[in-house]
Amino acid sequence: QVQLVESGGGLVQAGVSLRLSCKSAQRTFSSYAMAWFRQPPGKEREFVATINAVGRKTFYEDSLKDRFTISRDNDLDTLYLQMNNLNPEDTAVYYCAAYYEANNRLRSPPNIPGIDYWGKGTQVTVFS
What we know:
The protein is mainly beta. It has no helices and eleven strands. The chain has strands at 4-7, 10-13, 18-24, 33-39, 46-51, 58-60, 68-73, 78-83, 92-99, 117-118, 122-127. The strands form two sheets. Strands 2, 4, 5, 6, 9, 10 and 11 form a seven-stranded mixed sheet that branches. A four-stranded antiparallel sheet has the order 1-3-8-7, with no helix packed on it. The radius of gyration is 14 Å and the shape is globular. The model has no long low-confidence stretch (mean pLDDT 97).
C-alpha cells in the first residue's frame, strides 16, 4: 500500500506559478514511477506528466510540456509539479499517482486503469 498526499494547490491569478507536492508515507516511494493527472470541472481526469522511479525520464502531455515540470526527490519521498504561467484552463483537481514499472521504465503516457495508487487530490483554481 502506498499512501499519497498532495499539497500546494490554491486560488491564484492567471500568470503566476505554483508548485504542487505529493508526499508518500512509505519508503517504497522510490520503487514506483509517478505521475500527475488532473480533472477539470465537469470533465474527465486527464494525464499531465510522468516520471520514472529514479527521476531520469519524463513524459508530458504535449500541450503542457512548455509550462509544467515534473520532478521527484526520493530522499524525501516527494513528487513535485512546477506549473508556470497558469491560466484559467488549468483549473482542476490535481492528483498524484503511482504505478509500478520494472527496470526504471515509464509509460508514455500511463492510463488511468493502470495506476496502482492515487492521492485524494489538491484543488487549483486560476482566475483571470
